[in-house]
Amino acid sequence: MGSHPRKDWDTYFMDIAFMVSTRSQCPRRQVGAVLVQGKKLLGTAYNGAPMGVPDCSEDGCMIAEEYELVKDGGEEKVVKKQRCVRTIHAEQNLLLFTDRADREGSTVYVTDEPCWTCANMLANSGITEVVFCRAYPKDSGKVRTMMEQKGIAFRGVEHYRPPTPAAEPIS
């Protein structure tokens, strides 16, 4: 038996979040989220259309355009954002399919930094930490500020590499 270093907990749970994301049929971004209390996995979720409804891979994305006024170095500018409104985000599905009692004091591992809406929902969910891999610069500043105000630990995993897809089985 070959010896290999044991994965740390952040890597272990983030690997699971990325595995969960493979269930998503979203052509724009596959996102996975897991709920962890201590070292116990309590729930998983991914982004997609509501159950029983055609998803974006079947009926196409439902893109909505929004405009937001942002301050950039003391100067205000209008930023155009596009988002799909057919998809329920992974964090939202995680909150829908887990119990509040399980969320109290728990950590959410998510493949992507939460958007503003998901961050708001997570902030009221009872969790105490959010750990993510890929940055989401559109909302990052205001999300970080709000998480800090709520006392929720909010961090990206450094030096993390998502798992590579497994090789096809040999027949």
TrEMBL record:
SUPFAM superfamilies noted in UniProt: Cytidine deaminase-like
Swiss-Prot/TrEMBL keywords: Hydrolase, Metal-binding, Zinc
Reported cofactor(s): Zn(2+)
Keyword 4Fe-4S: no
Keyword Disulfide bond carried by entry: no
A Pfam short name: dCMP_cyt_deam_1
Segments forming domain CMP/dCMP-type deaminase: 8-154
Family: Belongs to the cytidine and deoxycytidylate deaminase family.
Protein name as it appears in the record: Deaminase
Species assigned in the record: Saccharibacillus endophyticus
